[in-house]
Structures are given as structure tokens and as C-alpha cells.
UniProtKB/TrEMBL annotation:
Keywords: Oxidoreductase. PROSITE patterns: ADH_SHORT. This is SDR family oxidoreductase. The lineage of its organism: Bacteria, Bacillati, Actinomycetota, Actinomycetes, Kitasatosporales. It comes from Streptomyces rugosispiralis. Belongs to the short-chain dehydrogenases/reductases (SDR) family. Residues 12-193 form the Ketoreductase domain. Transmembrane segments: none annotated. SMART domains: PKS_KR.
Length: 268
């Protein structure tokens, strides 16, 4: 089998935030399969070890590799993406232990479905921190190094709710809409340093986050009916789009959001 060289990302190092499960884990798997060295992130070190084992086990660190030790190309870095000092320390540790980050995927996120009138101040701050501030903190820290090196790819995991909203999910949509504009802003600021920043916007994808919706027969049927593809998305559906945005094939693509939603954002 031959792969066009424009899609070759073998040997690059990628950090995927929120990759202990769900979409992040599937994207990490795709990057490993494409030949990348991948760093998994989340807050729970034990969940990360388990997730790494599923991808072939944790690799040898830089010193071990220099000494000739072989190992899988999967690493773990447990830190909270909403905590500025933890992010700074986490990124420094990854670069020290694994090597320069070529590809950053800002995927960590949460959902909180509640009517806006009942949404508390704390809940608002938590969803803003988790879905938006995290991308600023991790993106800034990674980009400080990428700008110095003159290249880098950043992919922010947006949502179809970066474009449209339904009752009961306004705060989530607000964070994802803002993440789309942060993507464009990062593109504007960092393009001159050889960094491309894009968004990937999943539609309704079956994961732990959406389990209550999948299990709600009425809602689940609504998703299938509203989606031109006629089904829920699977985490694997997102891998091809990520590999494209992370590859040299997308070197002149920046500030865009690529929606992978079975067509849902295009229909009324
Ligand atoms: P999951 O809840 O299944 O996974 C979320 C991941 O993020 C976990 O690995 C979790 O690990 C990690 N995480 C959460 N908070 C933090 C934090 N503060 N610091 C570090 N890691 C954190 O969600 P999905 O896989 O479904 O969603 C992933 C992304 O995709 C999110 O940004 C979501 O908004 C987006 N998305 C999802 C859609 C869907 O239909 N599923 C649709 C559109 C967008 P831990 O809890 O151990 O820290």
C-alpha cells in the first residue's frame, strides 16, 4: 500500500488532551497508526495507563531511547488542562521526556445540559475553563515552543454546536462557538511562525459524554432522523479529518473548522 507523501506524518510527536477515553483516545489511536509518537493526557494517571496499554503500552523515555531501548510510541502526561501552572509544567515535562511537540490536539472537554435559568455561576465557570480556557492555556504553552521552532499544527476540537444550538445547551455552545473564534485568532497570530491552527467539529458521536443521549430513545431517534447520514457518529469517523489537518497536505489550510457530522450542520 502506498500513501501520498503529503499525508505522511510518521515520526511526528503529538499531544492529545483528554485522551484517556472517547474521541481523544480514538484520535490518539489514529495518530499512533499513522506512525506518530503520541502523548495521552487526562487528570487520572491510572486511566491514562490503561488507555496507553490499549494503544500498545507506554514507551521508553528519551534517555532510554538514547541508550537504545525500544518501546511503544505512547506516553502519558497527567495534568489538569484548566490549571495554568500545571499546564506549563506538563508541557515542559512532555518536551523534556518525549521530545518537541509537533502536533497539539486540544480535545479535553465536558458537557453540562441544563436550562440557562438554572445554570449556576460555578457551573458556568467550570464549562468555560474546561472547554475554552484550556485550549488557550495549552495552546499558548505549546505555541511558545512551536513559534521558536518555526512549525507546528494545532487542532482544536470544536463541535457542531460551534454553529448551532438547541435549548438546554447554551453554555456548551457558547464555549464551542468561542473556541471556533479562538482557532481563527491563533491562526492570525501564529501563522507567520509556520503554525497552522484548525478546528475539527464533530457531530453527535457515541461516547461516555453522550451516553445519556444515546440511551434516550426519543433523542437518539431525533439524531438519526436529523443526520443526512442517518446514524450517530463513531469516534473512528473523526480520525481521517484529524490526520489530514495534522499533515503537510494541510500546510496552507488554517483558521478553518472541518465539520465531521454526517451532514447535520448543513440541513434544517
Ligand atoms: P469524554 O467525556 O468521553 O472524554 C473527555 C476526556 O477529557 C477524558 O479523557 C477526560 O479525562 C478529559 N478531561 C476532562 N476534563 C479535563 C481536564 N480538566 N483536564 C484534563 N483532561 C480532562 O468526552 P468525548 O470524547 O465525547 O469528547 C471529547 C471532545 O469532543 C470534547 O471537547 C467534546 O466537547 C467534543 N465533542 C464531543 C461530541 C460528542 O458527541 N461526543 C460532539 C462534539 C464535540 P479525565 O476525566 O480523566 O480527566
Amino acid at each position: 500500500m502506498t500513501t501520498h507523501p503529503l499525508f505522511d506524518i510518521a515520526g511526528r510527536t503529538a499531544l492529545v488532551t483528554g485522551s484517556s477515553r472517547g474521541i481523544g483516545h480514538a484520535l490518539a489511536r489514529g495518530l499512533v497508526e499513522a506512525g506518530c509518537t503520541v502523548v495521552l493526557n487526562g487528570r487520572d494517571p491510572r486511566a491514562l495507563e490503561k488507555a496507553a496499554a490499549e494503544l500498545g503500552g507506554v514507551g521508553a523515555d528519551r534517555a532510554d531511547r538514547a541508550a537504545g531501548a525500544a518501546g511503544a510510541r505512547v506516553y502519558t502526561a497527567a495534568f489538569d488542562v484548566t490549571d495554568g501552572p500545571a499546564v506549563a509544567a506538563g508541557i515542559a515535562d512532555v518536551e523534556e521526556r518525549v521530545g518537541p511537540i509537533d502536533i497539539l490536539v486540544n480535545n479535553a472537554g465536558m458537557q453540562n445540559r441544563a436550562p440557562l435559568l438554572e445554570f449556576t455561576d460555578d457551573a458556568w465557570r467550570q464549562i468555560l475553563d474546561t472547554n475554552l480556557t484550556s485550549a488557550f492555556l495549552v495552546g499558548r504553552e505549546a505555541a511558545r515552543r512551536m513559534t521558536a521552532r518555526g512549525h507546528g499544527k494545532i487542532v482544536n476540537i470544536c463541535s457542531l454546536q460551534s454553529e448551532v444550538v438547541r435549548p438546554g445547551i447554551a453554555p456548551y455552545a457558547a464555549t464551542k462557538g468561542a473556541l471556533k473564534m479562538l482557532t481563527k485568532g491563533m491562526c492570525a497570530d501564529w501563522g507567520r511562525y509556520g503554525i497552522q491552527v484548525n478546528g475539527l467539529g464533530p457531530g453527535y458521536i457515541e461516547t461516555e459524554l453522550t451516553r445519556p443521549l444515546v440511551e434516550d430513545a426519543e433523542f437518539s431517534a431525533w439524531v438519526r432522523g436529523r443526520t443526512p447520514a442517518g446514524r450517530w457518529g463513531r469516534t473512528e469517523d473523526l480520525i481521517g479529518a484529524l490526520l489530514y489537518l495534522a499533515s503537510p497536505a494541510a500546510d496552507f489550510v488554517s483558521g478553518q473548522v472541518l465539520y465531521v457530522d454526517g451532514g447535520m450542520t448543513s440541513v434544517l
